[in-house]
Amino acid sequence: MKVIDKIALLLIIIGAINWGLIALFQFDLVATLFGEMSIVSRIVYGLVGISGLWGIKLLFDKD
Fold first, then answer.
1. Are 16 and 29 in contact (CB under 8 A)?
2. Is-above-0.85 flag for pTM?
3. Domain segments of the chain: what residues?
4. Could you read off the pLDDT of 2-51 as tens digits, one per residue?
5. Cα–Cα distance between 10 and 53 in angstroms, integer?
6. Contact residues for 18 (Cβ-Cβ < 8 A; gap 6+)
């Protein structure tokens, strides 16, 4: 697995945990750590979204 694939997978996991926290406890970890829709939190959300798209590629990779 390439480094970029591992980074994308890590960000996908972070995003999934954040969504789980939102669903179960109405607690947005990213917003708590970096501020409600601050530049940093928007970057984190953007990177998680891009990683999700990258994850589609991981489904079809033949290693």
1. no
2. yes
3. 3-57
4. 999 999 999 999 999 999 999 999 999 999 999 999 999 999 999 999 99
5. 13
6. 28, 29, 30, 48
